[in-house]
Amino acid sequence: MDITNRTGVITGAGTGIGRALAVEFGRQQGNLLLVGRRTAPLEETADMVRSAGGTADVFAADITEPGAVDRVAGAARARGPVDLLINNAGNVRAGRLEDLPEQDVLAMISLNLTAPILLTRTLLPALKESAANRGSILLAISSGIALTGLPFYTVYAATKSGIAHFSEALRREVHGTGVHVATAYPGATDTDMMTSSTAGEDLGFGRRPVADVVTEILAGIIAGDHEINTAATTRRKMQDLNKTDPLAVDALLAPRLEALETAVRTHRSI
Ligand SMILES: NC(=O)c1ccc[n+]([C@@H]2O[C@H](COP(=O)([O-])OP(=O)(O)OC[C@H]3O[C@@H](n4cnc5c(N)ncnc54)[C@H](OP(=O)(O)O)[C@@H]3O)[C@@H](O)[C@H]2O)c1
Fold first, then answer.
1. How far is the CA of 141 from the centre of ligand 1 (A)?
2. Is the distance from the beta carbon of residue 37 to the nearest atom of ligand 1 less than 6 Å?
3. Would you list the DSSP string of 49-80?
4. Which of 44, 50, 239, 269 could form a cystine bridge with 147, CB 3.0-4.6 A?
5. Residue 109 belongs to a domain with what CATH number?
6. 156 among known catalytic residues
7. Which residue range is the domain that position 135 belongs to?
8. Is the CB of 229 under 6 A from ligand 1?
9. Is the CB of 88 under 6 A from ligand 1?
10. In a domain, 215, yes or no
11. pLDDT tens track for 118-176
């Protein structure tokens, strides 16, 4: 895929993976609509995109609110043909299922699953229209947890495997239209989302630098990949084992359950 001169939307672009993706698309003369709730970090990203050689506008919105997705899509279409959509905004709340407040359960489902599905649904005609020459790019930022369900992340895992399967089904649905549907599966990455977790390398949560993760995501897009896994080696081994012998993964995790529960008890980015 040619990633130069892309025009479109990146959600959650004020920080972390979304910001780094925005800057990289900016470096490729991208023309971006940067979406998130807080204006200040989005403006900072917009400046970084401009310094990198691209153009950017900021659209502050909580994309889980009624009508917000339509407003984002309207603003995107008003800027011209859309050939890029990156559904990146996401949140997490860890903990034992029965201890998760209902509002946090719903917040994860709304942001990680419902909002990207609705935004994709609304912008898909525009992505198809722009796909004639060199294809459009539709990228979902899922998570390695979609490949190995981890304890104390039940709802987060449900949303991330949900969006991954949504992408797979849609990829088959839009076959031949020129819309390139890709899903990225980052493992633990050093961003704001992880600051409230104390789980580290010993528990399989060694964090990779954002720049490395985003470099791999973009390399995957350029190579025309549809499934882009940026997990660290130890986690990838567990993902492989989960495919062949899932109960062996249960056995591996069982002795570390208590330590993991303690380490992620405070993990919340909502
Ligand atoms: N970091 C990791 O270890 C990791 C691993 C696997 C997958 N991921 C995924 O990577 C994606 C990016 O996360 P990150 O690690 O870069 O964390 P992050 O820095 O917390 O980024 C999340 C972004 O989403 C935005 N956002 C949150 N709620 C929103 C809402 N209701 N409406 C619009 N925007 C909203 C936030 O900006 P505002 O607060 O200003 O709205 C923020 O910029 C997420 O989908 C996450 O699940 C992360």
1. 9
2. yes
3. HHHHT-EEEEEE--TTSTTHHHHHHHHHHHTS
4. 239
5. 3.40.50.720
6. yes
7. 7-264
8. no
9. yes
10. yes
11. 999 999 999 999 999 899 999 999 999 999 999 999 999 999 999 999 999 999 999 99
Structure tokens at 234: 């130890």
User: What is the Å distance from ligand 1's center to 86 Cα?
Assistant: 12
Closest residue CA from atom 39 of ligand 1:
37
The full DSSP string for 90-154 is ---B-S-GGGS-HHHHHHHHIIIIIHHHHHHHHHHHHHHHTTTTT-EEEEEE--GGGTS--TT-H
d(CA 8, CA 217): 17
Element (H, E) at 16: helix 16-27
In whole angstroms, what separates CA 53 from the centre of its chain?
24
Residue 269 belongs to some domain of the structure:
no
Q: Taking the complete model, does pTM exceed 0.90, yes or no? A: yes
What pLDDT, in 10s, does the model give residues 95-111?
999 999 999 999 999 99
